[in-house]
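Fresh eyes needed here. Have a critical look at this protein's tokenised backbone.
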Amino acid sequence: MTLRVIAIDGPAASGKSSTASLVARRLGWAHLDSGALYRAITLAVLDNLEETAGERGKGKRETWGAQHVVALAEDLPVRLVLVDDVFRPEVAGVDVAQAIRSERVTQRVSEIAAIPEVRHWVNVQQREAVQGHLRGVVVDGRDIGTVVFPDAPLKVFLTASPEERARRRLAERGGTGGRGGGGGGGGDAELRREADVLEARDRADSTRAVAPLRAAADAVVLDTTRLSLEQQVQAVVALARTRLPG
């Protein structure tokens, strides 16, 4: 049976999750955001370590061991729950879809995601989720087409200039940035700072020893710098209907 997975990868703020969500909706498939699972684990670790630090009066970093992180994810548990064709992250039975977008989680998620044991645990959760959804799943992340689902019949790698991605990220936070190279991003200085942050994240993701960010050899690379969200969604949907008819 053909694996019914569309793998969408790319750097931060390239539009992966927004595109994947809309593509899944157009196709009548489910959407799985791998980043949400990494963020959920990070939230769980931060909350646990803050509690531990408060009880013992010691620093937070004493329990940042890989096995401790995985055990925590299993015990709480951290998991994906399918709700209306969207895999929602939960921690200890609580929906954390909003909480995982906090700045404290954003600052630490790369550190947690770089742990090999954590990546293996997340990959297992994603594969199990997809196996239980026969209609099809659009999965977005940074190593979906290269590591998690290397046999996916359609792999898309989204790119955009750091400046355009910075505009989008600022717009998400309520700034004046826009898509497709238009509009400002809260001022040139703010835009440059955000672009620098994204470029640093790119370097960290692309040079890490485990599952570095890169396009799969057979991925369709789509530069979205001058594309609207609707245009990139249409492009991926057209590819999907060619590669995965029905």
User: Anything to note?
Assistant: Confidence is low (pLDDT under 50) at residues 180-186. The two ends are 13 Å apart (CA to CA).
